[in-house]
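Q: What would this chain look like folded?
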Amino acid sequence: MVPEGKLDRLLQRHAALAAAMADPTRGGGEAFVPLSKEYAELEPIVAGIAAYRALVREVREAQEMAAEGDPEMAALAADELTSLRARLPDAERRVQLLLLPKDEADEKSAIVEVRAGTGGEEAALFAASLFRMYQRHAELHGWRFEVMSLSETDLGGYKEAVASVVGRGVFARLKFESGVHRVQRVPETEAGGRIHTSAATVAVLPEAEEVDVQIDDKDLRIDIFRSSGPGGQSVNTTDSAVRITHLPTGLVVQQQDEKSQHKNKAKAMKVLRARLYERERAAKDAARAAARRGQVGSGDRSERVRTYNFPQGRVTDHRINLTLYKIDKVMLGEALDEVIDALIAEDEAARLAEVGAEG
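A: My prediction, written as C-alpha cells:
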C-alpha cells in the first residue's frame, strides 16, 4: 500500500520549498542552492503522486457512476472501471519506487576499471573485449568514454584498463557490472581447439568531485618516474609518469599515459578520489549490503557475476539467473541493456520487499 500520510508530507514540503524560493527576503546565493536542489529532487515524486491520485480519483468516480440507476451509464462505467483498476498497480508501484531511498551516487559519472584475472594471456584478451564492450555501450548511450590508462600485452590484451565514462546517471546503469566476469571459449592462443575458462575483474566506481572527498596534501606521497612497458601510444620516454600513494589508506594510483606530468597527476587524482569515495560508501553500506547479499549482489569485485560462453553463444548473469543467447550483441554493447534492465528491476523488487518487511 502507498503511505498516504507520507505522500501528503512530501507535497507539503514541495510547496514549502516553492514558497521559500519565491520569497524575495531570502534572496539568492548559498541558501538558494540547497533549496533548489531538494525541490528538483522532489519534482518527479510530486508528478508521480499527482498521476497516482488522479487515477484513484477516476476509479472512485467510475465506481459512483456504476452504482447509479441508469443501466447504460452503469455498463459504460463498469467497462471503464475494469480498465482503470488494471492501471492502478503500475501507478502504485511507480510511486513506491519513487519513495525508495536514493543512492546519492546514481546520477554521477563513473570510473570503469577492467583487470585480467586468472587465465594468463587469454584473460588479458578477454579483459580487452570487455573494455571495448563498455566503450561501445557508452557510445550507444551518448556518454563520453575517455581512456585514462591502458596496460597492454604483446598480443593486444589488457592487463589493466581504466576509463572515465561521463554522462548523467552512468553509475546507476553500470554499477551492477562490478565483480568477476568469466569467459569460456577456445582461446586465440590455443592451437588444440580446447575450451578454456578464464576471468577478468570489473570495478565501477562513482566519479567523485572534490566536494565529495576531502584529500589533504600531507596525506599524499607523489613519485615521478619514467614510463615503462610494451610499446605503443601509452608509453613515453620522459620523466612524467606519476605514482600517488594515499598514506592513511595505502591506496596507490599510477598514471603514465600522458606526456605531461601535470595531466598524469590530474588523472591519477581523479581515480584516487573515486576509489576513496567508493571506500567511504562501502563502509556506510556494509550493514545494509550484508543483509541483502545474495539478492542482486553486493558489488564486491571478488563475486562472480557473469559467464560468457562463446561455444554456446550465451551470456548468463548468475545473480538473477538470466541467460541470453545473443553473446555477439552483448559483446557489441547492444544487448547489455537487457541484462542491466533486469538487474535494476531485481534490485528495485528487493528494495520494495525490504521496505514492505520493515513496514
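The radius of gyration is 26 Å.
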